Amino acid sequence: MFAPLMTALRDLHLPVQLRLWDGSHVVLGPSPVVTLVVNDPALVGQLARPSLDLLGSSYVEGRLGLEGPILEVIRIADSLCRALIGEDTGTAPSRQAHDKATDAAAISYHYDLSNDFYRLWLDQDMVYSCAYFETGGEDLDQAQQAKLRHLCRKLRLQPGDRLLDVGCGWGGLARFAAREFGAEVFGITLSRAQLELARQRVVDDGLAGQVQLELMDYRELPQDGRFDKVVSVGMFEHVGHANLPLYCRTLFNAVRPGGLVMNHGITARHTDGRPVGHGAGDFIGRYVFPHGELPHLAMISAQISDAGLEIVDVESLRRHYARTLELWSGRLEARLEQARALVPEEALRIWRLYLAGCAYGFGRNWINLHQILAVKPREDGSHELPWSRADLYA
């Protein structure tokens, strides 16, 4: 099996070489820039039917080593899968309702890894979501500040507005909305590590009188319409398809009539929510986001509408997230030794693949990201939005 496989791999003319367990090298293409280090002989036979899940899992488990630029590693791995097994149609996922304990455990697994680790490669405010590039030339800090401003402008925040921040993370948006727009912010998260640092940053910024952050599940939110505006950023990916109706009703009931709801999150390419990318979704589900499920824009739009909210604006930020992830990946790659002192080697391997792989996936349109702005109409159908979007770009 080894000789025919090597012949097939050479026919691909990829800039890659293998270093086998006995120290020998097999050059597969011209001017190799990536080396796959095969530590487990059993892996050779599996390479005849590769997937990104197989290659990624093998790297995490130490069966496979990777040398070379991580973004180029991802590109070559995808080319290898496409050449040897063809296009990937994927399968529709099963839908199971998430309970509070399951969601709390999943959030803790992902976000409680290490605040210092995230600080290595995120921006100064530790905004862990898609940035917004007004020209494409911004650095990460500039683009994240622009994203926070873009969200607040879309919500038409005014001094004294009561803003609910669902999935507040390290509090970057909550503090920005309070400091720059004068909002009164109530934010929730399920991550204890995030909450501790976020609360400290609120105090350090002198915003304790305007920003309240709590450890709370979205299903525990008050349902009395007490908030003027609601924003949910990078959170509904954790809700699960089966719970989307409940999630949308919860946001509807939290906001007052005439108020606005912004949902910013990753969406699937296929309408049934099935993943794409030769097992990339399986890898992410196993190692990165347990129980995460991505709905298509049509699915989440239907649920928002069925809950009683009127969708008034939709914007795709797919290219923006590809660029954000490239910057995150580059910052992590430049600080690998520091990262190794903060997290286990297995976790670091997961994150190297995850950030670079998602940058590639967004760039290839495997997944998207949409900001969906909705309003809760009054009984007479009225609301407070202006006639045009001109104010957003003034």
What does the model show?
With 394 residues, the protein is an alpha/beta fold. It has 2 domains: 2-85; 100-393, Vaccinia Virus protein VP39 (Rossmann fold), CATH 3.40.50. The chain contains 15 helices and 11 strands. The protein has helices at residues 2-10, 42-46, 52-61, 70-85, 100-111, 115-121, 140-154, 172-181, 192-204, 244-254, 280-287, 297-306, 318-333, 336-340, 345-363; strands at residues 16-19, 25-27, 34-38, 64-67, 162-166, 184-189, 211-215, 227-233, 255-268, 310-316, 367-375. It has a 7-stranded mixed sheet. A 4-stranded mixed sheet has the order 2-1-3-4. α3 (52-61) runs parallel beside α11 (280-287), α4 packs across α15 (345-363) and α10 crosses α12. The termini are far apart. Belongs to the CFA/CMAS family. The active site is at 358. Residues 13-77 form the DUF7884 domain. GO terms for molecular function: methyltransferase activity.
